[in-house]
Amino acid sequence: MYTALYRSFRPETFDGILGQEHIVKILKNQLKNGTTVHAYLFCGTRGTGKTSTARILAKGMNCLADKESRPCGVCANCISIRGGIFIDVIEIDAASHNGVDNIRELRESVKYPPAAGRCKVYIIDEVHMLSAGAFNALLKTLEEPPENIMFILATTESQKLPATILSRCLRLDFKRIPEKTMLQGMRDICGRLGVNISGAALGLIASNADGSVRDALSLLDQCISSGEKSVTRENVIEILGTAGEEVFIEMTGFMVRHQVTDALLLLDRIISDGKDERQFIKDWIVHFRNLMMTKFIRNPEDILNMSIENIERIRKQSEETDLSFINDSIIKLSQTLSEAKWSTQPRILLELCIVKLATADQTVTDQNIYQSPRETASQNNSKRGDIGCNSKTLQQTEADSFNKTKANSERPLAASENKKEASVDYDKLWYTVFEEGESLKGSFNLLRVGTVLKEINDNNFTVEASNETIMYYVKENASDLEALMEKHLGKKLRLECCVANDDDQQEKKKTAEELADEIGNKFGIQIDVL
C-alpha cells in the first residue's frame, strides 16, 4: 500500500527536522547533559513538526547509542518507536480520549515502571481538547510523576489550556517553516523520487502551504499522483483550485487598479474550481483585515498567524492601498456576506460587490458627496415613502435646492483650500452631512432648509443661517456638525456661523416664487409660497 509523503519522509532524528533549530538545540543539549524535564508542552500551528519532534525525543530517551549520538535512528529501540510498537512510548489522541475516565486509566498505567526502555513517554496530541474534569485529573500526576516518566503535550491552541497545566510544563513554541527551507526540502524529496518539477511550481506549493510542512507535502503528493512526467505551475494551480493567499492578493490588486473585467473573470475561475462564494467572502474579509493590521503593527507575525513570506506580500500590498479603501471594503464585504447567508444567488451578490469596490472613487470615501441636491432629496423622499408628497413639500425642497445651487455657484472657493477640498461640492457635502445627522438627532431636519455651507478653509468651515433662530440651532449642534465634517474631510475643523443679509433673503424668496410658478404650470396645480 502506498504511504503518503508526509509519513514516508517523516524525520527520524533531530537532523531531519526543518526550521526548528532553536528547539533542536535545546533538546539535544538536554539529552547530552541528562537535564531533560518530566513534562514538555509543544505549541505551534499544524504541520510544523510537534508530533515528529515528540517521537524523536522519545527515541532519545530510550536510544541504545552513546549520549552524544542519541537518537541514532537505527538501534532496536529507535526502530520499534518508529514502527509504533515500542511498549514504553504511548501516544494518546486527546480529541477522542478527552474524558475523565481516559485520564484515570492513564494515571493507573503511570504507576508501572518502564518495561523495555529507560523512560516511559506519554505523548498527548491535541491536549487542548481535554475536558475540564480531565485536566483536573491529570494535574497532580503531571506535577509529580513517578521516576522515569515523561509527558509530552502537543497543541495548536495553547490559549485553551489552564494556567495550572501551563505552569507545570517546559513550553517550546514551534515556528512556521520558512518557504526557502521548505523549498529545499521538497527539492530533495523530488530528487530522491525522480520527479521533475519546476521551481515556480514548488514556490506556489510553498506559499499555499503557509509554513506547514505537512500541507506542503500533501500538495506535492497530489501533484505527483496526477501521473504527469513533469509538474508545472499550471498543474499546481489546477490542483489547488486557486484558493490560497495569492488569489486574494491578486483580487485585491484588481480592485485597487479598477480592473473590473479581470476581477470578474478571476472570480469565475475560483467558483468553477469549487470554491464556495460565502467562504470566499469570509476569507477575503480576513485578507483586508490583514492589510489593515500590517499598516499599524511593525511585527504582525503572531497576530496574523501566517508565514513570513505571505506577511511580506501582504505588507507590500498594504503600502499601496489606501486605508479608507480597506475600511470601505471590509464594510461592503461584510454586508454582502450578511445578505448572502439568506440568498439563493450568493454569486450575483459577490459579483455586484466586486463591481462596487472596483469602480469606487477612492479619493472620497462617500459617494453621496457627488450626488446633486435634487437627487439626494429625491432619494430621501423615496426612502420615506413620500411619493405622494403635497405641493408645499415639493415647493420647499425644489426651491431650497435651486437657491443653494445658485448661491454656491456664484461664490469662489477659499484661496487656502487644497486640491482635495476644491473637488468637493459644498451643497452635496452639506446634504450628506444632514443625511447622517438625522440618524443622530431629529432636530437636524430643522437646519436642512435654513442653512448653507458657505466656505471651507484650513482651520474652519462657515455656515450661513437664514435667520437668528436657525443660527441658534446651528450653534447648539456645533459639536455634531464638526464631527460629521471631520469624517468626510479627514481633518478637524471649527464651525463658524453667520446670518444671511436681507438682499440674499429677498433673492431667495424671489427665486422660490419663480420656481413655484414653474412647478405649478408644469403639473397644473396652485402652489403658495410661505
Number of domains: 4
End-to-end C-alpha gap: 93 Å
Let me know the average pLDDT: 80
CATH class placement of the largest domain: Alpha Beta
Approximate strand percentage: 5-15%
CATH domain fold name of the largest domain = Rossmann fold
Radius of gyration, in Å, reads 34 Å
Q: Architecture of the largest domain, CATH level 2?
A: 3-Layer(aba) Sandwich
Percentage of residues in helical conformation:
55-70%
Q: Please describe the biggest sheet, giving its number of strands, its sense, and whether it closes into a barrel.
A: 5 strands, parallel
Name the features.
alpha/beta; 3-stranded mixed beta sheet; Rossmann fold; about 525 residues
Walk me through the structure.
With 530 residues, the chain is of the alpha/beta class. It folds into four domains: 5-173, Rossmann fold (3-Layer(aba) Sandwich), CATH 3.40.50.300; 179-240, Helicase, Ruva Protein, domain 3, CATH 1.10.8; 245-359, Zinc Finger, Delta Prime, domain 3, CATH 1.20.272; 369-520, DnaA, N-terminal domain (GMP Synthetase, Chain A, domain 3), CATH 3.30.300. 57% of the residues lie in helices and 9% in strands. The protein is built from 26 helices and ten strands. It has helices spanning 5-8, 21-33, 50-62, 76-83, 100-110, 132-143, 163-166, 179-193, 199-209, 213-225, 233-240, 245-256, 260-272, 277-296, 301-304, 308-319, 323-340, 346-359, 373-383, 391-410, 419-422, 426-440, 444-448, 468-476, 478-489, 502-523; strands spanning 39-43, 89-93, 120-125, 149-155, 170-173, 196-197, 230-231, 451-456, 460-465, 494-499. The strands form three sheets. The chain has a five-stranded parallel beta sheet with strand order 2-3-4-1-5, covered by helices on one side. A three-stranded mixed beta sheet has the order 8-9-10. The chain has a two-stranded parallel ribbon with strand order 6-7. Helix 5 (100-110) links the parallel strand 2 and strand 3 (120-125). Helix 9 (199-209) packs across helix 10 and helix 14 runs antiparallel to helix 17. Residues 362-399, 401-422 and 504-510 have low confidence and may be disordered.
